[in-house]
Design goal:
This protein is an alpha/beta fold. It is built from 17 helices and 18 strands. 40% of the residues lie in helices and 21% in strands. The two termini are 54 Å apart.
Length: 523
């Protein structure tokens, strides 16, 4: 698998299981094309191993593992397999086309699993594990063995199991915290003990696979690294069974940022992290929490006035890594009621206003009053604050009517009527879904063509007649604005949100045009 940048073989391998364990998360199922898109992004990330699926689980899984195996060149491509002949044969067929194929064999080792799930004795489990590894070793060199529920297994017994599978040909020994039961100190101790007491322990890579049931997956994985693990099994955005798996982006950046502590790193291209996160999010339709470390919308955002002032003077005052390090554009000063005068002044300058020309004190007072009402302030709000207009936005466009035609057997069609400067204008459009058709019709009727960059719908009340809120983010050139709409019908709410956004876009255009025409100096 090559050497690390300092010429040594000592680095933390990243084993990505987004396509297998991650996909087991409810709502995260992917088709073959989506898996291929994620796999190619994982290769761009530079992960060492891709677990492409569980080939024996279904014909679809078999085909997707085959497709991934053929599509990537760099990483080892694995299929998961139980200690059953049929599983191993299917897994071998699935990875046959890979440049670097491998098999991941597992069986449970905790007494609770042996008694209630497997109905096997400890010796029977050892025999099954050794047989499966030996069988796979006849065909592939790269074999990983996992002792399922290792964190709740007897350590002496684990030493026996791992000793036998190493003898049978395993190259990687994985110690999973399958239920998220472990705590960092115990995980570290377990790895130290296994490496010290397992026969031929120095001949294999020791791996950790942690779940996040207690919110400790990343902490436990890092503790395992401190205990000698040299592979971390993880997923993009931490998706996976129940509360999820160890988050790839968090482990990679923890080792990167705190190299002074861990004195070891990965070979991942961190600048691809944000793109990988966004790619997966779009594929599975799962929104990333704003406070998600590394990749969340707020991960590099600052609202508190003291924080904003510090960041404006030196980003290291409140940032331990740069957004550019993970492929993001820059940090963000989020304006709200906690923001100070420095951040407000900077935001005005970015919009083309000169704080020395406008009545800055009055504008800042209006800003604080609006922030108390709205919570978060966007660029279009700042324009209103700066020019002293009490209206939320221009009302050049008014939605008058929306008519929908939908069918199981044809493209949906939406007709809209919009008043533009008091004159009604209608248009009809089809699209990939009702919302898409609605927005195409609005564009045709208003001649305002923009790119939809964000869309979010949420229920404000319960019941079948629930009131819903839709928020959108649209962009035209360098101008991006948000709009919101409330209605009991999601199409109507979506239409209202889009019209609200283009009204705000009109206001931004109007004011920025005036600013460009002005001779006032902008420092």
């Amino acid at each position: 698998m090559g050497k690390y940048r300092d010429g040594s073989n000592d680095w933390v391998r990243i084993f990505d299981t987004t396509l297998r364990d991650g996909e087991q998360s409810p709502g995260c199922t992917m088709n073959v094309d989506e898996k291929l898109a994620v796999a190619r992004q994982l290769e761009a990330l530079g992960v060492d191993v891709i677990e492409a699926g569980f080939a024996a689980a279904s014909p679809g899984d078999l085909e997707s593992v085959k497709a991934v195996a053929r599509a990537v060149d760099g990483p080892v491509v694995l299929s998961l397999a139980r200690t059953r002949e049929a599983d191993i044969e299917t897994a071998l067929r699935a990875v046959d086309g890979a440049k670097s194929p491998g098999i991941h064999v597992f069986i449970a080792t905790s007494d609770i699993h042996l008694r209630y799930k497997l109905g096997m004795s400890r010796q029977e489990v050892i025999d099954a594990a050794a047989w499966a590894v030996e069988r796979a070793s006849r065909y592939v060199d790269y074999i990983e063995f996992s002792a399922e529920d290792a964190s709740r297994s007897d350590t002496d017994y684990l030493c026996q199991v791992f000793g036998e599978v190493i003898r049978a040909g395993a190259r990687v020994c994985n110690v999973p915290d399958t239920t998220g039961y472990g705590v960092p100190d115990k995980i570290r101790q377990m790895f130290e003990t296994l490496r010290a007491r397992t026969e031929s322990a120095d001949q294999v890579i020791w791996s950790t696979h942690c779940h996040n049931d207690l919110g400790l997956a990343v902490a436990n994985s890092l503790a395992a690294v401190e205990g000698g693990a040299r592979q971390v099994e993880c997923t993009i955005n931490g998706i996976g069974e129940r509360a999820g798996n160890t988050a790839l982006e968090e482990v990679v950046m923890a080792l990167n940022t705190r190299y002074d502590h861990f004195v070891i790193n990965t070979r991942v291209n961190a600048k691809q992290i944000y793109l990988a996160s966004q790619t997966l999010s779009k594929m599975i339709g799962m929104t990333i929490a704003p406070t998600k470390p590394i990749v969340g919308a707020n991960a590099f955002a600052h609202e508190a006035g003291i924080h904003q002032d510090g960041v404006l003077k030196n980003v290291r005052t409140y940032e331990i890594m740069r957004p550019e390090d993970v492929g993001r554009i820059s940090n963000t000063l989020v304006l709200g009621k906690h923001s100070g005068r420095h951040a407000f002044s900077k935001a005005l300058r970015e919009l083309g206003f000169d704080p020395r020309v406008i009545n800055f004190s009055d504008a800042f007072t209006r800003f604080k009053l609006l922030a108390d009402k709205k919570g978060q302030i966007f660029s279009e709000d700042l324009i209103v604050v700066a020019i002293g207009d009490e209206s939320d936005a221009s009302q050049r466009f008014v939605l008058e009517d929306v008519r929908v035609v939908a069918s199981l057997h044809g493209d949906p069609e939406v007709a809209v009527t919009i008043s533009i400067d008091g004159k009604s204008q209608s248009a009809t459009a089809t699209g990939d879904g009702l919302i898409d058709a609605c927005y195409e019709a609005i564009k045709k009727s208003t001649y305002v063509y923009s790119v939809l960059e964000g869309y979010q719908a949420k229920g404000l009340t319960g019941g079948t007649d629930a009131l819903g809120e839709v928020s959108v983010l649209i962009r035209t050139g360098e101008i991006a604005v948000r709009g919101r709409g409330n209605h009991t019908d999601v199409v109507m709410a979506s239409a209202l949100a889009y019209v609200d956004a283009i009204n705000r876009l009109e206001l931004v255009r109007l004011v920025t045009t005036k600013n460009r025409r002005s001779n006032d100096p902008v420092p």
